[in-house]
Each structure stands twice: as C-alpha cells, then as structure tokens.
Amino acid sequence: GGEPILQGYSLLRMENVICTPHIGYVERESYELYFSAAFRNILAFDQGDMSSVANPEALTPIRKR
User: Is residue 36 part of a domain?
Assistant: First the structure.
C-alpha cells in the first residue's frame, strides 16, 4: 500500500493496530535523547571548540587548501 492510505484499508479496521502519522512517534524525551549531543556540539562549535568536528579540513578556506 501507498500513502496516504485509503479509508477502507485493512490495517485501519484491526483492533490490535494503532495507526499514526509519521510524526506519531515523536515525544520530548526522544528528541532530547537523539538531539542533545548534536545541540551540545553546535553550541561548543559556536564557542570555538572544534573537538567534535569530524572533518576540520572543511573549515579551511578553499584558497588555502
């Protein structure tokens, strides 16, 4: 089946199935778990801490490479 699912789709009629939109899994705790490290890295980079930069050569201006 494709999306959007049609009104009569069999999954929608099943008692042991909960259908949610793609965003249905999102909850605050999940976002904090998944993105807290990323946001910490962004803030550290903004403060000049380059320790989490995976490819520091990308920060060198093209003319200096």
Answer: yes
